[in-house]
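step: validate -> pass
step: tokenize input -> pass
step: predict -> running
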Amino acid sequence: MLLYSPEGNLFPGFDNVVFAKTASEKLASVRDLCDAGMVCVFTKCDLKTYKQSDFSVQGEVFTYDERDNKTRLYPLTLFRKTNEKNIIDVETGHMQKIFLKTSKK
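step: predict -> pass
step: emit ->
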């Protein structure tokens, strides 16, 4: 399938597209876009795509995980501290962090 940006540029990465008549929005596979030479940058407000050849990054790396060659998925390795536990406030739905005391025996 050929799709184009609002500016009329050919947008790669839509070779394996499935349409669902009940879907109200267009869905895309990030891994297919990246395989097609695009870079996807997500923020809390938006998604921006760049051609890999035109993209550079500044800043300190916060996390780094390599893409799994077998599944083609992008893992995110995170850990929990042993004395922390998150609970959800049932009234607000917000996550709260509590610290558990460990007893010394």
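step: describe -> The beta strands are 3-4, 10-11, 38-42, 47-51, 84-88, 95-99.
step: cleanup -> pass
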